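Input.
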Amino acid sequence: MNTMQGTSGQDKLLTPVSRKKFRVFAAAGIVLVMGVVVWILSPAISNLFGTDMTVSRQQLRFARVERGDVRHDVAVQGRIVTANSPALFAPAAGAVHLNVKPGDLIVEGQLVATIVSPELNNQLAQERTVLQRLSIDYERQQIETRTAILGSQQVLETAAVDVELARSNEYRASESIKFQVISKADHEMLMAELKKAGLMHRHAVQNLALQKEKLDFELRAKKLEVDGQQLVVNNIERRVAELQLKSPITGVVGSVNARDRDVVARDTSIVMLVDLTAFEIEINIPESYADDLTLGLGAEIMVNNKAHEGQLTAISPEVTNGQVTGRIRFTGDTPSGLRQNQRLSASVLIESRSDVLKVKRGAFVQSGGGNTIYKVNGDSATRTAIQVGARGLSDVEILSGLNAGDEVIISSIDAFNRAEFVFISK
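Output.
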């Protein structure tokens, strides 16, 4: 009969470890681990307890100071307006005959509308009749002048013949009296006739001169009447010609303010035209920048993500809702496809600085007043006094307080509460 053997032969008596020694070893391990952790985190802990507050890095924006060019410009929003949009008005009362409708393309000189004015046409006919009558009077005066001068010339020529005849008779009488052929009384009578003929000749000469002067004056008076009436006719003809409203530009019909065959009064607006080649941008400028802007400053206009050169041509003296209205004109070729009231963005260049210290523009400019920034040094940032110069859309000029290569916080610093030191956590 077999008997089962026990495990007593395999057992070994162990001496129990003292609880006091175990606690010593555990404490030593914990101290060792804490020492390693403290040694690793000592810089961060030092910064943490040496700063006034802690801010997460994810909440901040950083940038480095560098050298480069800074454009001091103002970003504005605007809309396309036409620089040349003439309106055509009725020059006289009458019925409108339209040749176009809104949206039609037109060219310079094209007939847009006609005003039918019976009153003006009747007045033109009457004045032309008066001009014709005065012209006939002037021509009649010319004939009468030539007739009168001819009569005076005949009298003068007759007087000249009488003088020659009297001079011949007196000469013969003088020769005859030497031989006592005629009496002294006859000789004296012939001498008197010579004097009388000479007197009549002189009077005829003077009368012809006065007659020419008088007739010339009357003729010029008639001519002035004709010329004056011609001016009246020309003026009415011009007004009648203006009844045909022709386009002064090449563009498009913007609006028509009357219906076909409507009877309108004088100076009524009929058609508004739009010049598609002369666009400007009407912009709204913040009041704070208005004093920095002057006429003639360069501008950059963005159209379909492409920059076009422009020039500031007008600034309103009136402030409305904290903004000043201005106008920018394209200085190069006007982009195609522009539409009235189309919204655009632009920037007006106030000045440009070359090779200066600059940093990316951020909210620190407004929150810090442009004289405070936080310079980063590892995991902390120090409040630093600075002075900024030109402020562009993307960069800000640094005049003092920073050096090239410095890393700074460019986000808003309002949350820092003007703390001297800030710890930047991960």
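The helical segments are 19-50, 118-178, 184-241, 287-290, 364-367.
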